[in-house]
Design goal:
Blueprint: E1 7-13, E2 18-21, E3 27-41, E4 44-57, H1 58-67, E5 73-87, E6 90-105, E7 111-112, E8 121-122, E9 127-130
Parallel strand pairs: 4-6
Antiparallel strand pairs: 1-3, 1-5, 2-3, 3-4, 5-6, 6-9, 7-8
């Protein structure tokens, strides 16, 4: 059986995604999402956010940088990746999510955007942005 790595995170965009270009000429975007966990303690609700860094590539990165804003609610589908950075005392590990699909909830309207779509439907409540992640 092949290994399976699929993660789905719902949360709010912490800072506006910036579009960058890698040394090999591919577009990418990197931004954090806050996913809230609510639980009840002593008859009061407590919010415990978890911050997840999201990485997008190619056309998905371009659309996310153009359309996603700070505070916006999104659902991200992707796979976990671990990056280890050498330090003076050994290494530091960074866990992040490489997105291959993002759904945006914007003002109660739905816009579906896919890589090869010419028009945008602005009638319901989810924007779907899909992109194949490079290996």
């Amino acid at each position: 059986m092949q290994p399976f790595n699929l993660v789905i995170i719902e949360g709010n965009v912490v800072s506006k995604p910036n579009l960058k270009k890698s040394t090999n000429g591919k577009f990418y975007s990197y931004f954090p999402v806050a996913s809230n966990h609510f639980y009840k303690a002593n008859d009061a609700w407590v919010n415990e956010p978890t911050f997840i860094n999201i990485q997008c590539w190619g056309h998905l990165a371009q659309i996310v940088a153009d359309t996603c804003d700070k505070g916006e609610k999104i659902i991200v589908y992707g796979k976990l990746r671990l990056y280890s950075k050498p330090t003076e005392t050994g290494k530091q590990d960074f866990l992040y999510l490489v997105a291959n699909k993002i759904e945006r909830f914007s003002n109660g309207e739905k816009n579906s955007i896919e890589e090869n779509q010419d028009s945008v439907d602005i009638d319901d409540q989810i924007i779907t942005i899909e992109e194949e992640v490079p290996a």
